[in-house]
Design goal:
With 81 residues, the protein is an alpha/beta fold. It has 3 helices and 3 strands. The protein has one domain. 5% of the residues are buried.
C-alpha cells in the first residue's frame, strides 16, 4: 500500500528531503507550483505523515489566532500538544 508523506507549502522541499532520501514517497504541494493546499483532493489511500510549513505571512494575517479559536476557548499553539 502506498503511504506517502505530504509536504504542504513545500517551497524548496528541504523539509521533506530526508524522507525522500530515506526512500519514502513524498507528495509536494506548493502554491508556487500552481497547487493550492486548500484545494487538495482527498487521497484514496492513507498518508504516513504530513509536513506543513506555511509562509510567515499567515501569522501576519491572523491565521494562527483563528486556528487557536477553532481548537477551543483558552487554546494556544504553545499549550496544545
Amino acid at each position: 500500500m502506498v503511504m506517502p508523506i505530504l509536504d504542504l507549502c513545500s517551497g524548496s522541499g528541504e523539509w521533506s528531503r530526508p524522507y525522500r532520501e530515506a526512500g519514502y514517497d513524498v507528495i509536494q504541494v506548493d502554491v508556487k507550483d500552481g497547487q493550492d493546499v486548500r484545494l487538495l483532493e482527498v487521497l484514496p489511500y492513507p498518508v504516513r505523515g504530513i509536513l506543513a510549513a506555511p509562509p510567515r505571512e499567515a501569522e501576519k494575517q491572523g491565521l494562527h489566532s483563528r486556528y487557536a479559536a477553532l481548537r477551543g476557548p483558552g487554546s494556544t499553539a504553545e499549550r496544545d500538544p
